[in-house]
Write a structure and sequence with these properties.
The complex is a heterodimer of chains A (324) and B (352).
Chain A lengths: L28 H17 L2 H30 L4 H7 L7 H32 L1 H5 L6 H35 L13 H32 L2 H26 L4 H9 L5 H16 L13 H25 L5
Helix pairs in contact in A: 1-6, 2-4, 2-6, 4-6, 4-7, 4-8, 6-7, 6-11, 7-8, 7-10, 7-11, 8-9, 10-11
Chain B lengths: L13 E12 L2 E7 L2 E3 L3 E5 L6 H8 L7 E6 L2 E2 L4 H5 L2 E4 L11 H11 L6 H13 L15 H13 L5 E5 L7 H16 L3 E5 L3 H7 L2 E6 L2 E7 H7 L2 E5 L3 H16 L7 E6 L5 E6 L5 H10 L6 E5 L3 H11 L9 H7 L2 E2 L5
Parallel strand pairs in B: 4-9, 4-10, 7-8, 8-9
Antiparallel strand pairs in B: 1-2, 1-3, 1-5, 5-6, 10-11, 12-14, 12-15, 13-14, 13-16
The chains are: A mainly alpha (324), B alpha+beta (352).
Chain lengths: 324, 352
Amino acid sequence: MESAPQVMPDPMASPSTRASSVLIGRQDYLSVLLRLTEMELYKIRRRTMSRVLSIISIIATISLFGLIALAAFLAINNGTSPENVRSFTEALRLPRSLALIEQLLLTLGQILIIILVSTIVGGEYNSGTIRLMLTRGPSRTQFLLSKVGAAITCIGFGVVAITIIGVLTGLLLNLATGVAPDFAFFTVTWSVHVLLYLLIIILGLFTYAMMALFLSTLGRATATGLAGVLTWSFLIEPVIEVISNFGRNISGPTGSFFQSLPDYLIGTNISALLGNQSQYVFPTSSVAQIAPVSDLHALLVLIAYIVIFIGLAWWITMRRDVTN
Amino acid sequence: MEDISPHYQYDGKTVISTSRLTKAFGNLVAVNDLHLEVMRGDVFGFLGPNGSGKTTTIRMLLGLIRPTAGRAIIFGMDNSYQLSAILQHIGAIVETPVFYPYLSGRDNLHVVASASGMISGGASNRRVEEVLEIVELRTKAKDAFRKYSMGMKQRLGIGAALIADPELVLLDEPTNGLDPAGQFEIRQLIQRLAELGKTIFISSHFLHEVQQVCNRVAILQKGNLIKQGAVSELLQQSEQIVIRLNSADETQQAFALLQRAQEQGVDWITRVHIEIDKQSFPMIQVNAPRTRSAEINALLARNNLFAAEIRPQEGSLEEVYLELTTQVAPMGGTRPGMAALARGSNESNFDL
């Protein structure tokens, strides 16, 4: 009869021989991931670039509202009627100020987030710190997910901070116009829709951020992520819109296909979600618009983009030999 | 054939065991069929010329590179399946130490500590300060990494490898860029770590340094393992006995006598040759254990040859390394001149 193989006691289970000042935290998957994400945020906080991006976004927000306030002030001095002044200064007050903030976040904010995410991913390859991080214990999946976690944290924090700064700046500057703000719209339902509105902005920025994550991982460089997403946002998407317009002149399935292309672009679907919310957030404003696609379609398209970008970045990270 | 499976029975002694570990980059085989064994408590030297596959091997052990074939078992775990668990017990430097250039030395160690699983807070701060003290970077801890000199970067790299007080420390060229005093301090540190029971794996070009600190070595050449064993055994194999006689004639007679002895089956004489010393006087060098000096003296005396001087000459790892790596040349030939050049003397087929 075969005897069972002798199993030696597992020396790895023996009491730790580490120095007393080395306290190892919980090693379950989520704890490691949270710790890594905290580490990413620690690095981001200490970068000069992060401070510069924050300052740019704050200055841009204050400047934008400042310009409107200045124009209103000049209009008042020129003897413009109070009704016109009220209409002109609507952007300084809630809820209209949220539309201005949205535009700012989805243009300048998008660029700044892309710069940040491209840097935190591509920078690891540029400087070679990828091999420092991948030899510490956490898995490659956890390493990648910590970047995703840091990105969503920065986006969420940034959107909330700029919104608060923008709203407060607008209200403060509005005092100089002499137009009293009207808070009749301010209900619980309205607040919920504003929250959804902000979450959509976060989702939109996150989608572009994940594109940057994927492209920086693929190209092993900050520049790849940055150039790729900017090219997509400011060249490819507009070109597809043009092609779509061209499709209206073509009959049959080909024409239908061209016309439907924009329905699958990131920008179109973000606009659709925002547009569908705007009727609730701006109930009496001309900002409200009816979107060409439904919320469900838009959500599914954006989620699909996010899954594809993170999935591809994960696949590349898992398979790649780290030789730099 | 050794059976390596995911249910490898860990004996508690073998820290690293590779089986047929191979890495090919296209047609280039960087590491070929490597069987390494590193025991617990070893200070293991990993030697080889540039391009021999040392760094590729280290990268495979750390999971940075996927092997083309074979496997590596570390602490009884297959690193293809349990890499995260393994890495928690390893501290490593791979090639030139890299850190975040915009962070200070201290901040970089905090990042590494966090990534290594340490809880941030008081204990982690204390550990970072301890490590900065060990690698003598406390006064420069606040400076950004991009301002560090090569030697400071190397120290910080060693600090990062030690931050979580790992059981296995993998150091790739740890004394690169350090001045002689720094190299000495790192050697002292390695010896202290070994005394604490750590297993140290060092890849280095500095053979005299490896000879001083390592107890076992492996030598790679063009991706192939050409020698692995205890340093003491390798040095014993390269021990020599140097004989000086009183005239050129006597030297020639003694040389012929010893060659005959070797041909007639005295197996502890592996080689006999004549070299010219710095005073241009011929000396006979016999590759034999130093304990055989008396026998050689007796043999010469029986033939009325009386040596002016017989002294043992300790082998050096450099000699062993050069002998081994020049025996296995790229196209299968030999380059016998290389070892002689390295010894810094004139060797010839001396014909008196």
